[in-house]
Automatic annotation (TrEMBL):
The chain crosses the membrane at residues 26-48, 68-85, 105-126, 146-168, 180-198, 210-230. Its main location: membrane. PROSITE patterns: FAD_FR. InterPro entries: FAD-bd_FR_type, Fe3_Rdtase_TM_dom, FNR_nucleotide-bd, MRET, OxRdtase_FAD/NAD-bd, Riboflavin_synthase-like_b-brl. PANTHER family: 1,2-PHENYLACETYL-COA EPOXIDASE, SUBUNIT E, NADH OXIDOREDUCTASE HCR. The keyword Transmembrane applies. Keywords: 2Fe-2S, FAD, Flavoprotein, Iron, Iron-sulfur, Membrane, Metal-binding, Oxidoreductase, Transmembrane, Transmembrane helix. It comes from the Bacteria. Pfam families: Ferric_reduct, NAD_binding_1. One of its GO terms (cellular component) is membrane. It comes from Actinoplanes derwentensis. This is Predicted ferric reductase.
């Protein structure tokens, strides 16, 4: 234990803090604007290729609107791929959870547009040719180039969408969801190419061909570079291996990882990686774990709570086990702190891992910091010795909020049963409205804390939280 932790920088101790350049604030605006402009470009190309002129023919309105919904759905499907392609500057500007929410929203919108496209095109062709809708649908699939592939891709996308509904996600393990979700790439790859063979906006329009081939190329390139190439390169170059596994609390262990030139790994305290431990069957499934201390240059640390099959294996890892890594991801870093403002950290359960890492970056600046750590029992506190040491060395105020919830809808323990959550927060942090707040814990618990913070006068822009969303 001594030899391992001596190589990880503790708050207030000597060591190397690897500062990384902060993301430019305009990156998020640029990415969002580009996404909106892509939809505008699709509509403009549809108009340029006679989208409105088709209304005059029999079945024209349904066919023309069907073309438009299909084009916009295709554009949004490709934007979905780009959203989750792990493009570093986009990832760091938005954060993984914000990108996941946008990905989900765009996904459902593109899905319904795709369904509208199928229905409208079928009805339009039936109206123009006089056949029945079902007969026309069958004829389209069988006789038009690429339509069999498109039908197969549509079935896969429907499957992914159904399994992405909140109720379905709650019944799945992350590993199952992740495996099924990979079929979305296959679905997109099968559903879209029929437009290259039969779509008027691809065949008859040079600007359309340039736009669509460019967007296809950008989406495919981003996946190959950032989801495949970069992780393979970093895993090969840094040659990460398990250095030690150290118990931290009941059901919680820290895994220390060593490697080659870790000082060149662009990681920040508060970020997470997707880890694959080559320890036997199941190694292909990646697991998202946050760094629990700032990168020290020669060692990384993650801290894992036993919450399932993947996390339970962490305690059995042996020194020397090779590790494949994707990342870093996430935007909950010290860059969110506005100079001159006090810092309030609020954590529950294993959410303390993120706060523990952020202390390495924030405490050294001399910023007044208060940490509220919600736990069931004091014996469950992870990093208690490190947090107490940080309090002695740097003056960080650490408050352990111990015990069961005072009320079912409260985020505070039993000692606050006689007061509201707002009164409890103001008693703990009287000037809370003037703080920059970092928040990490279970989603429902964080929602309660957020509501109390806003009630206490903390502006939403000063509440920083990120959860692993899927």
């Amino acid at each position: 234990m001594t030899s391992v932790t001596g190589r990880v920088r503790l708050t207030g101790a000597a060591g190397t803090n690897l500062r990384r350049p902060a993301p430019r604030r305009w990156w998020a605006d640029l990415a969002g604007s580009a996404a909106l402009l892509s939809v505008v470009a699709v509509v403009a190309l549809w108009l340029h290729n006679g989208g409105l002129r088709g209304f005059a023919a029999p079945g024209g309105p349904a066919t023309s609107i069907g073309r438009l919904t299909g084009l916009v759905a295709s554009d949004l499907l490709l934007l979905q791929v780009l959203l989750m392609a792990r493009i570093p500057w986009v990832e760091r500007s938005y954060g993984q959870d914000a990108l996941a929410r946008r990905h989900r929203l765009v996904g459902f919108l593109s899905f319904w547009l795709m369904i509208g496209h199928i229905g409208l095109i079928t009805v339009g062709y039936a109206q123009s040719g006089g056949g029945g809708v079902l007969a026309v649908a069958g004829d389209l699939v069988v006789t038009y180039p690429g339509m069999v592939l498109a039908a197969a891709g549509t079935v896969l996308l429907i499957l992914v969408v159904v399994l992405s509904v909140r109720l379905a996600r709650r019944r799945q393990r992350y590993e199952t969801w992740h495996l099924v979700h990979l079929y979305a790439y296959l679905g997109v790859g099968l559903a879209l190419p029929h437009q290259l063979w039969t779509g008027a906006d691809f065949i008859a329009s040079a600007p359309g061909r340039i736009y669509w081939w460019g967007l296809y190329g950008a989406a495919l390139g981003a996946v190959l570079v950032f989801r495949v190439g970069l992780p393979v390169f970093r895993s090969a170059y840094h040659r990460l291996r398990v250095d030690a596994v150290v118990p931290e609390a009941p059901g919680v262990v820290s895994v220390y990882l060593s490697g080659h030139h870790l000082d060149r790994l662009p990681a920040r305290a508060g970020q997470f990686f997707l880890w694959r431990f080559l320890d036997g069957p199941g190694w292909t499934r990646a697991h998202p774990y946050t760094l629990s201390s700032a990168p020290s240059g020669d060692l990384l640390r993650i801290t894992v709570k036993d919450l399932g099959d993947g996390s339970s294996r962490a305690a059995t890892l042996r020194p020397g086990t090779r590790v494949l890594v994707e990342g870093p991801y996430g935007a909950l870093t010290a860059d969110r702190h506005i100079a001159g403002r006090k810092v309030l950290m609020v954590a529950a359960g294993v959410g303390i891992t993120t706060m523990r890492a952020l202390l390495d970056d924030l405490a050294e600046s001399g910023t007044p910091i208060t940490l509220l750590y919600r736990i069931r029992r004091l014996g469950d506190a992870v990093f208690r010795a490190e947090l107490d040491d940080a309090a002695r060395r740097t003056g960080v105020r650490v408050v352990y909020l111990e015990g069961a919830r005072c009320r079912p809808d409260s985020w505070l323990p039993a000692m606050f049963a006689q007061v509201s959550d707002l009164a409890g927060l103001r008693w703990l942090v009287p000037d809370v409205a003037g703080h920059e707040v970092f928040l990490c814990g279970p989603p429902d618990w964080m929602a309660g804390v957020r509501a109390t913070l806003r009630e206490a006068g903390v502006d939403t822009d000063h509440i920083h939280a990120e959860e692993f969303a899927w």
